[in-house]
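Can't paste images in this forum, so I'm doing it all in text. The chain is below; anyone willing to post the predicted structure tokens underneath?
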Amino acid sequence: MNRKTIFITGCSSGFGQMIAQHFQQHGWNVAATMRTPEKDTLLHTLPNVKLYRLDVTIPETVDAAVIQAITDFCKIDVLVNNAGYGALGIFEKAKEEDMRRQMETNVLGLMRVTKALLPHFRANRSGTIINIGSVAGELAFPYFALYNASKYAVNGFSKALYYELKMQGIAVKLVLPGMMKTDFFGRSMTVFEDNAVKGYEKFEETTRHNIMHMAERGEDPALVVRTVFKAATTDTFRLMYPVGWQARLLLILKYILPHPLLRRIMETAITRRKI
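Text version of the structure:
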């Protein structure tokens, strides 16, 4: 049996590491990429898994990792653009470097990896690109301005690319998690701090409290892994894959409720203090 090969970004922890393990366990070759592969303590021990140094913000590492993975495995069947992080906080407190890093990582980095693999996919007249988007790319939340902007960009990019590549035999799929129990609010997040910006204190305290409250009720990240596997192994051109009841509910509300009512519901849920 010919093993299929999946190329995954952001495999040092979280979704990326879990996705790599899941595909390896199901008989796939895995090209697992991360910024510092020498720090990996798990994936390099697994059969049919190769690690590659890749920082999505450094184009040279993207090109090198893609070329080496194709050399090692001959063919890449699926790309999972997973690398990313969340820059959260009151937008006025964000520095120029915060804005650049958020977009450079979540948006331009994803585009770089996709562009690097497109010639290979087109040459084979096949391939699947799975972008880890977010329900935050369909609905906006206070405190998430930069993260929302990056995920709206990812979702919009994926939807446009879907049309361009379908005629080439390449499927683009968008996985949309809701709130999940991952390290997003730990190593995968930065919070803007600027004590010189005044006037947001009560709003910020309440909003942060409610966000953490919702995070504690997040869903099992294994749902995302299973959804990615379904997207990779289902031979259709289905575009959107919402993950979990929260994401499904929010998307349903988005499409059936008038926008003013939806905004009022969102504002109440996020900005009113919960015990």
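The chain has eight helices and nine strands. The longest helix spans residues 96-124.
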